[in-house]
User: Fold Aminotransferase class V domain-containing protein from Leptolinea tardivitalis.
Amino acid sequence: MSPMFVPGPVDVAPVVLAAQAKPMMPHRSKDFEEIFRRTAEKAQKLFYTQYRVFQGTSSGSGMQEAGVRNFVQEQVLSCVNGAFADRWNKCAIANGKKADRLEVPWGQAITPEMLADAIKKKSYEAVTIVHNETSTGVENPVKELAKVVHELSPDTLILVDAVSSLGGTKIEMDAWGIDFLLTSSQKCLALPPGLSLAAASDRAMKKAETVANRGWYFDLVLMEKHRLKDSTPMTPVMPLIFALDVQLDRILEEGLDNRFARHAAMAKRTQNWAVAHGMDPLAPEPYRSKTVSTIKNTKGLDIAALNKFLLTKGMRIANGYGDLKDKTFRIAHMGEITMSDVDSLLANMEEFMG
Assistant:
């Protein structure tokens, strides 16, 4: 398996890919319901939650939409510090919500002080926060942000996108008081794309029952009725559920603390290397992601040429995202990537740079 250092889709282990070839079965059968229940129970360990975990047939963006459709009737505050936080804000507006923006420049984090100032000025039904901004390599301090919300506006729900971090760093949903925590399959979980996972607290689900126009496909109240019977309202993406069953076993066998330590060590190695070569990470020290490093391209590297060279070595990295294209490059160190993979990548990059 040639390592890809891109922030999704990522490499998938052969045994996990093979699991998708399991013969089909009726999705209303007891056989499938047992698998569906098993994956949900194992996912609870990854989310550090006692609450239900939904398994949706969509990308993580689908669960972003589910969050605003189910938990917000009108007023939501969007914390925006990158492309995917911006997407969630636009998603809220597209669904008819009044979505205010608490915004900082790309590369900066949302701080508790900023959030405190915003929620003191106005009451919101929910706050949306991207934990790990894939576009910038910034990890927002969600634990501290959640604490501020609970202290100053306890009725406000806390909705968190952890698409590029859950499974790569510890996020304690219940202990931190997160109400809705979402992720998708193709990043730290190291599965093919197309599956989303989201856990919702009891108080969030009670709120959803009062919200009008939740839609149908992403109606979590409807999904909950079926989930209680180990099922879904519509046909689920069964091959990815089969793969999830196998991959969660592999993740739990590695040990969550071991897995998180591996990701943190790879991030430190990558970021220290970049600094040593005169290319600082875009994110300031306290807020650097443990799963994807966005590096300032201060040497003016030709990223397309670099990737063409890396492909001859069986690997690739990602260019900067959006307006950061060519101004930065991104090295993802998540999922199946190991420290030896990172060492090989950095050696090859040094060879390219001369």
